Amino acid sequence: MDDVVGRCDRKVEKGKLLRISVTLRSSGGVLVLTGVNVFGDFFMHPEEAIEGLEEAILRSGMDLEERQDGVSSYLSEGGIELFGASPADIALAVQGAIEDGLLKARSG
Amino acid sequence: MSGETVFRVIRHEDAPRTAAVNMGIDESILHSVSDGMAPPTIRFYTWAPSAISLGYFQSLELEVDAAECRKRGVDVVRRITGGGAVYHDSQGELTYSIVVPEKSGILPGDILGSYRKVCDGIITGLSDMGARAEFRPLNDIVIEGRKISGNAQTRRRGCILQHGTILLDVDIDAMFSVLRVPSEKLRGKMIETVKASVTSLRHRLGSRPEPSAAADRIEAGMLRVMGGTPRTSALTDEEMDRALSIARERYGNDVWTARR
Question: Which residue intervals of A22-86 are DSSP H helices?
Fold first, then answer.
C-alpha cells in the first residue's frame, strides 16, 4: 500500500490556524505515522525549533495523550515559546490529520 | 528607558524594493545592530512589485497560488518571522522594521510586552493622523475591531527584530487573487469576511496618505513611546552589500521559499 497523506486545518479559538499534514504507512498490517508537518500562522521562538517539534510528534506515534505530553515536554525542556496555539491544540490537530489519513486508507 | 537613546532611522518608503531585498535589508540591519556596528534602528519601506510574504512556518503550497503570482508579477518571499501570509500591495502599504538589542531595555523582555510597546508607538502615530486604534494581542492593531496593522517578531543574535505593516489602502480582491483559501467553495464568503475585518487609513481618513506622511507620524509615535532621539541615516555600503547577498542566497532562493 502506498503512503497515505492526511490533512487537518484547525483554527485555535482566539489563536492561530494550524494546518497539519501527516503521512501514514502500512507496517505489519497496521498504519504507522511516518511523517508530520506542522504548518500555520503561529509564532514559535526560536523558529528553528519547528523541525524538532515535528520529530517529537513523530516519536509520540498515534496516541493523542502521548503526543500532547511529547509536545509539552519538547517545548518546556527546550525553553521554546509557542504563541497562538497550545500543545493540546497541536496534538488535536495532528489527531485530525491522522483520522483523515485513516479514513482515506479505509476508502482505498 | 531614558530619552537619550539614539535611534537610527532609515527612510526607504519612497524607494520601493523587491521582496527579497526588503527582507535582506531587515536581516542585514539585524547583523549590524547585533555586532554593535549600528544603534537601534527603525526603518520604513515599501514594495515593488507587490509581494506575498509567507510566515516562517507556513506551507508555500497551501497558502500561495504560485502560478497566479508569476502571471501577475507578484513576488513571493518567506520571512524569518512567524505569523501569516501578507499581501504587500505596492500601492497600499507602509512597512516598518525595528531592530534593538534584547539587553538594551528599550523593549520588554517578554514577547507580548515587546509587541505591545512597538504597537503602542504605531498606535500613537495613527492617533496623530486621526485614526484611533488599539492593540489586539498577540500581534495586531485594529480600529473598531478591524485590522489595520499586522506585526511579526523574531529574536536572533541577541536582538529583537519586529516588522509589520500599516495599511494605507487595501485591495482585498487583488490579495485573494494570489492567495489560496482552505476551501474554494467558500472563497467568496471568505473574501467578504476579510473585507469586513480589515480597514485602511484611506477608509478611516477619506483619502490615502502618502507613505512618507504616514511614516513621519509613525516614526514620531514610536520615538515618543520608546523615549528615543532620531538620527536619520542611510544604510552603510557594507549593510547594503550584505543585504543583497542575503537576498540572493536566502530570500531570492526558491529552496528557502519552498522549504515548507
Answer: 50-60, 64-78
Query: B185-202: b or e for each residue (b if 16 or more CB lie within 10 Å)?
Result: eeeeebbeebeeebbbbe
Q: Tell me how many residue pairs between chain A and chain B have CB atoms under 8 A apart.
A: 56
A83/B138 touch (CB, cutoff 8 Å), yes or no:
yes
Residues of the domain holding A53: 4-107
Handedness of CA B118, A15, B69, B148 (dihedral sign): negative
The ipTM estimated for the assembled molecules is: 0.95
Q: Is B231 exposed, middle or buried (0-12, 13-18, 19+ CB in 10 A)?
A: exposed
Q: For B71-114, write each residue's pLDDT tens digit.
A: 999 999 999 999 999 999 999 999 999 999 999 999 999 999 99
CATH code, domain with A103: 3.30.390.50
Q: Is the pTM of this model over 0.90?
A: yes
3-state secondary structure of B16: coil
Q: Which of A91, A86, A85, A78 is nearest to A49 (CA)?
A: A78
Out of A39, A44, A45, the one facing B62 most closely (by C-beta) is A39
Number of domains in chain A: 1
Can you say whether residue B136 is alpha, beta or left, with left for phi > 0 and alpha for psi between -120 and 50 degrees? beta
